[in-house]
C-alpha cells in the first residue's frame, strides 16, 4: 500500500474522528508531507514507540498508541498470573490523554491498569512495576526529544524496558492488529467500576522516595551540619523531576535547594529552552544565572521524564562548567566504590555495568577498586537485563550502571536509569568533597592525574523522512564495506561489527573502530530519532593534548560521514 493509499484509507475510516480527518484534509496537495506521515507504520522498536505527534501511521496519536497497547495487552495475557500493567507519564503535550487511553484499552482486554494521576519519573514506573508485582509497564514520554515528540515505552515484569526477545513478541502481536476495530477499549466509568482501572498515589510516592534515600552513603555528614551550608540549584526543565528530586534531597539532609522558578512547572512546550536536554549547556542558562546569585556549590538538571541527570560545577576560575555524562559517571563510580571500600562494604564480586560507547575511565576506576566491569549495547534496558540475570544467579553484585548519555543507577530497586538517585549521589559527593576542601572539578582533575586524561565527544546528524533513512543506511554500509586502514594518521587495529553478534550481545547495527593509540570511534543510528550518532574517545597525558586529539579524530571521521549524508 502506498503512502497515498494509507492517507485515503484514514480519511475513509469510520473509526477515525472528525478532528483527525480535518488535520489530514489540510494536507491535500502536500505530497511530501503525506509521504512522511504515511510511508510506514511508526516502528515499535526494543524501547517502544517514539515519534512526532499528529495524524498518520508514522505519527504518535491515539490510534497508534491504541494499536500498540492492544498488542501489548495480547502479550500480557499470554503471561502467567493475574495480568496487570502500571502506567506513568511525563509533562509532554497529550501525555495524560495517551496514558488514560492506554489504560482503557488494557481494561477493555481484561488487564488491570494501575495509573498514576499526574506526571511521575520514568524510574518510578520501573520501581512500581516491581513493587506491585505487575506483568508489564508503560511510560508515555519522549525523554529529552523536542516538544513535537512523544512516545510509548514498554516494560517487562522485572521493571526493565523490553529486551529484543520480548519486544519481538510484542511487535508480532501489534502486527496482528490490522484495523482499529480490533482495538478493544471500554469507558473510564466501566473500567473503574470493574476494578480494571486503579489509581496510584501518595503511598507509592512515599515508598519510592524512601527507597531512593536508603541508598544514601553519607547522610550523617549532611545531617551533622554540612546540609545547613551546602547550596544546590536544581532545574527540572519543566518535567517530572520537580517534586521527587526535591523530596529526596530534603529527606537526605540538603536544606538549601533552589529550584529555577521559570522551569519549575510542567510545560509540554518547554518554553524556556531550545531543547529540554541536560546534556546541553543552553538548558542550564537560567540555572547558572541563579547559581551565580546564590553561590551554589552545584547545579543539577533533569530531563522531562527524569531519567537523565546533568551536573554543573565550578572550575578553578570560579566559572560554572557542565560535566559530561562520562565525567559525572566516573566521579560517581569513584565516590561510590571508594566509600564502600573505605567502610569494608565492597563485595568481592561487585560489578559496574556500562555501554560500549561509554568512556573507559569509569571502567578503569572500577577495576582499581577490584570490581568487575561488564559492557552492554547502548540502551539502559541491556544494563537492566544484566542486573536481573545477576540477581537471579548470584554471580555478581550490582554496584552501579551508567551510560554516557547522562543515565545512571545505583541500587537494585529499579531497572532503568534514574535521575533522582543520580541527583542525590552527585550532590552527596559534592558535599562530601566540600568537607575536604575540594570541588567536584578538583576531584575530576585528580582522577585524570591518576587514570589518564580521557576525553570524549559526540557528533550527530539529523536526517529526516524516507530520504534520511536511506542516507543513514548508506553511511553505515560505506563504513562497513570499506573500513579505513587508518584515520587521522593513526592505524585502525580492528573494526567491531555488532551486527554480526559480538561478545554474546544481541545483533545491532553498530560499528566501532579501535585505533592503535587506544582511541576509538563508533557509528550508531539512533533507535529513537532520525539521527546517526558518532562517538569519539581518546586518552591523553594532559587535557590540552586530549582536546586536540579528539578534535583531530572528529574532523577526519565526520568529513567522510558528511560526504555521504
Automatic annotation (TrEMBL):
InterPro entries: A-D-PHexomutase_a/b/a-I, A-D-PHexomutase_a/b/a-I/II/III, A-D-PHexomutase_a/b/a-II, A-D-PHexomutase_a/b/a-III, A-D-PHexomutase_C, A-D-PHexomutase_C_sf, A-D-PHexomutase_CS, Alpha-D-phosphohexomutase_SF. Keywords: Carbohydrate metabolism, Glucose metabolism, Isomerase, Magnesium, Metal-binding, Phosphoprotein. Residues 43-176, 208-315, 325-451 form the Alpha-D-phosphohexomutase alpha/beta/alpha domain. This is Phosphoglucomutase. Transmembrane segments: none annotated. Residues 484-543 form the Alpha-D-phosphohexomutase C-terminal domain. The keyword Transport does not apply. Its EC number is 5.4.2.2. It comes from Paenibacillus oenotherae.
